[in-house]
């Protein structure tokens, strides 16, 4: 196939956190692909990149990708999205796929990549890394992630939310980053309280986006109904 695809990590929300390389690739594209939001709303990735898109010249294609763990539903959706992408790239050969943060950290593209490799094995794919949400949250909250010989772990919150699990992790790692925290925040806060770690955490939601909220005061935080774009960083090491 005489086309190329560049995957661009946009960073967590602030359009100025797109890398220069990402911006150049975005502006050089003839066709822009982006995953649709979880709630079916217009793509957050497209909103972040909007400032840099030429709507008259560049074609935009949003891909509806179901947010489910059911592989029976997921696989056909990835296959359909890959088919839409290859068809689009036949007409407009310089394509980019946009996504939040870094593409290879819990990003949707990896699933799509598998299908693209089957459908268009000769399509060159280039990945441009992005600022991760937890790096931006730590920067905004002024919290060191790791110093000297300290160890850092990043994991999805839904798997490690009880106090014993958190304590085990914090015995081994100076810093624990809990991604996908929104729906399980009540149990994270309870676990932190039981482990005596409530004053050792930072909560960040919608970093760099409208409604950004970052706090170290988890005692005052209402943990109910927090958004999907949220994370917690727990730090046994020095907080500053
Ligand atoms: C599917 S993962 C994508 C991670 C992304 N690729 C990255 O590099 O950060 C989605 C999770 O990333 C985190 N996240 C992404 N963007 C965020 C933001 N702007 N503010 C807070 N958390 C964010 C949240 O924990 C969310 O549940």
Name of the level-1 CATH class of the largest domain: Alpha Beta
Rounded mean pLDDT is: 93
* Class derived from helix and strand content: alpha/beta
Q: Report the strand count.
A: 10
Which stretches of 5+ consecutive residues score pLDDT under 50? none
Q: Tell me the CATH topology of the largest domain.
A: Cobalt-precorrin-4 Transmethylase, domain 1
Written as H for each helix and E for each strand, in order along the chain, the element string is EHEHEHEHEHEHEHEEE
Distance from N terminus to C terminus (CA atoms, Å) equals 53 Å
Strand order of the largest sheet: 3-2-4-1-5
Provide the helix percentage: 25-40%
Count of discrete alpha- or pi-helical segments spanning 4 or more residues? 7
**Percentage of residues in DSSP E strands:** 15-25%
CATH H-level homologous superfamily name of the largest domain: Tetrapyrrole methylase, N-terminal domain
| Count of the separate structural domains | 2
Question: What is the CA-atom radius of gyration, in angstroms?
Answer: 19 Å
Heteromolecules bound: S-adenosylmethionine
Q: CATH architecture of the largest domain, please?
A: 3-Layer(aba) Sandwich
The main β sheet shows up as: 5 strands, parallel
Q: Which of globular, elongated, flat, extended, rod-shaped describes the shape?
A: elongated
